[in-house]
Structures are given as C-alpha cells and as structure tokens.
Amino acid sequence: MLKIKIILASVREGRFGDKPAAWILEHAKKTPGVEVELLDLKEFPMPFFNDPVSPSMKKVPYTHPEVVRWTAKIAEADAFIVVTPEYNHGYPASLKNAMDWVYQEWNNKPVAFVAYGSVGGARSVEQLRQVVVELQMVPIRNTVGITFDYMMKAFQDANVNPVELLKPLDDKAKGTIEQLLWWGNALQTARGA
Ligand SMILES: Cc1cc2nc3c(=O)[nH]c(=O)nc-3n(C[C@H](O)[C@H](O)[C@H](O)COP(=O)(O)O)c2cc1C
Fold first, then answer.
1. How far is the CA of 11 from the centre of ligand 1 (A)?
2. Which residues have C-beta atoms less than 6 Å from ligand 1?
3. Are 78 and 109 in contact (CB under 8 A)?
4. Per residue, what are the HEC states of 67-132?
5. How far is the CA of 135 from the CAs of 28, 60, 152, 156, in angstroms?
C-alpha cells in the first residue's frame, strides 16, 4: 500500500484551491493500491520558521505542537501531490514555510504538482522543483496546470462541483498519478533496502 498525501497549499479565505484538491483526491482514491489523505495547511497553523537549528541539522525533534503534528504526517507518506496557486510568479509562503520546517521526512520521496493560474501555475511549479531537490525529493515530470478559464467558472458559481469542473483534465490527473506511483513504488523499495 502506497501512502499519498495531498497538500493543499493555499490558506486564503475563499480560495480556489479547494476545487483542484477535492478533484485530485477523488482520482487518487480511485487508484488501486493507494491510501490517500488530504493535508490542508489551514489546519496546521505553524509559526514562521524560527528555530535556531536548521531542520537538516537537528538532533532532537522540534516541540511546537503543530510542527510535531505536521512532521508526523510527512513521515507517514510515500509520495506527495502538492496543490498550489501561483502568487507573484512564485509559490505561496504558506507552502514554503511548511516545507522548511521538515527535512529528513521529505527525503527520497516523489512529489507531483497540481497548479493553477494564468499559465496553469507553471512558474510556481518550476520554482518548487528547485526547492524540493534541496529537500532530497524527486519532482516528477507530469503536472496538471489549471488555467484561468476553469478558475473563472468556479468564482462565478461557488457551488460548482469540482469533479465536473475539472473533468476535461481527467487524463492529466491519471497520467500524473500513474507516474507518481511508479516513483513512489521505486523509492519505497529503495528506502527499505
Ligand atoms: C498575492 C497574490 C498574487 C497573485 N499572483 C499571481 C501570479 O503571479 N500569477 C497568476 O497566475 N495568478 C496570480 N494571482 C491570482 C491567483 O491565481 C488567484 O487569486 C487564485 O485564486 C489564487 O489561489 P487561491 O484562491 O487558491 O489562493 C495572485 C493572487 C494573489 C492573492
């Protein structure tokens, strides 16, 4: 059983991020051999990173309760799907902070991106690929990029069904999850060896 954690990066009131997170969660749930959980950063109110010791150098675990809870969730995972907006041509600070608090628990695990924005969140994803390599993660090639036309539909109808809204991108979701599973299984075996 491969444990996939879906990380919802936006913590903004009225965020669009709920929609792609719900959609990709449904796809992951339907995938055989996978146990999936949504991690909403809104539910992990960590302080901005302020510890004297950097995560890769720490000898004793951090004690802030939210950080402890967050780190335990990352430790459980075999693979990640990050659902992220693009803020000022980059990733949101909420996501970077959540990444910065953890180190070893990210190592040697693959990550896929579901991004959104005027160019499908592509600039955010490219920056995140640089960040996750330093966390010793494997960013996979396949990505879902959701453009403004989908976002406008959601803003016009708050009750829009995410599964219906993003149906035209279903093949992208399947291809991304398939590639994530390949890496997830390969790295799970390698970590165990
Ligand atoms: C601080 C901020 C900066 C933004 N910068 C960009 C940007 O650089 N590129 C883009 O495509 N959209 C940008 N947007 C628009 C977002 O794509 C849009 O607001 C989206 O809904 C944000 O995701 P969220 O609702 O899940 O937080 C920005 C929005 C905010 C709030």
1. 12
2. 10, 12, 15-17, 85-89, 117-118, 151
3. yes
4. HHHHHHHHHHCCEEEEEECCECCECCHHHHHHHHCCCHHHCCCEEEEEEECCCCCHHHHHHHHHHH
5. 24, 19, 34, 38
Q: Whose CA is nearest to atom 12 of ligand 1?
A: 117
pLDDT digit string, tens, across residues 152-184: 999 999 899 999 999 999 999 999 999 999 999
Q: Is residue 84 within 8 Å of 75, Cβ to Cβ?
A: no
CA of 146 to the centre of ligand 1 (A): 12
Q: Count CB neighbours of 61 within 10 A.
A: 9
- What are the structural domains, with CATH classification, of the chain? 2-192 (3.40.50.360)
Specify the ligand 1 atom closest to the Cα of 116.
Answer: 17
Say what the pLDDT of residue 1 is: 92
Question: In this structure, which residue's CA is closest to atom 3 in ligand 1?
Answer: 87
Q: Closest by alpha carbon to 138, among 64, 52, 97, 80? A: 80
What is the arithmetic mean of pLDDT over 97-108? 98
